[in-house]
Amino acid sequence: MAGIIDDNSSSKNSSEKKIDLDFILELLKKEMQIPKIQGMSPDIYKKIAQIIKELSTQKYEHLELDVHNELLRLLILSTKSLIELRARKLLENYNGKPFPYPSLSTDEYSNLTDEEKYIFEEERKVSQRKDLIIQSLIAGNVNNLDSISKIIRSKMTIIRFLESTDQFMGVDMAKYGPFIKEDVAILPFENARSLIERKVAVEINDSRFHVKET
């Protein structure tokens, strides 16, 4: 079975371990058995991604191809389950209730991979924003709420059109379009969201794209 070596010192023993499907399933099983997030090699997901990349480029025929595809499917499924389980632990307390203010001890935080820290930091931002809105409401701070409205209304999103669209008025009262299929444009977030939901356009995150003049 395809795999690479894990040199994580927090493993059960100090010997190097081969990362393969059995190893990932072992991690998943252990994660399901303990309430806290277990320590793993900080680059475990990168190593798994490398395995998947290598498997995806290998060529097989007939029965070997079926076995290869099933192995790839199980690797992806087990890794996805591991990430989702650890993320769920990360965002819930041990009673299954969301943290009002996500925080972790130093030991808990050190058990996270960089990818999981990315998830945690985004969740922390969400909680901070929710707290700001609640506190502004309680304090009757209309200025704060006005500022929040201005921020969301001024947010712009880059999209690529999947079909032609007539000219329309944006939430900022500016005129946009008309656009044809494959045009790229920067639009107010609210307008872009509506177009994306209607599958008229898709969001892109590359500022190198040429932006159509409005």
Could you explain how this protein is built, in words?
- The strands form three sheets. The protein has a three-stranded antiparallel beta sheet with strand order 6-3-7. A two-stranded antiparallel sheet has the order 1-2. A two-stranded antiparallel sheet has the order 4-5.
- The chain has two domains: 93 residues, Up-down Bundle (Methane Monooxygenase Hydroxylase, Chain G, domain 1); 60 residues, Ribosomal Protein L9, domain 1.
- It is mainly alpha-helical and 214 residues long.
- It has seven helices and seven strands; from the N terminus they run E-E-H-H-H-H-H-H-E-E-E-E-H-E.
- A hairpin with a 5-residue loop joins strand 4 and strand 5.
**Count of individual domains:** 2
Strand composition percent: 5-15%
What is the CATH architecture annotation of the largest domain? Up-down Bundle
Radius of gyration: 23 Å
CATH topology of the largest domain: the name is: Methane Monooxygenase Hydroxylase, Chain G, domain 1
Mean pLDDT: 83
Individual helix count: 7
Would you state the CATH class of the largest domain? Mainly Alpha
Percent helix, as a range, is 40-55%
What structural class results from the helix and strand content?
mainly alpha
Main sheet overview: 3 strands, antiparallel
Number of strands: 7
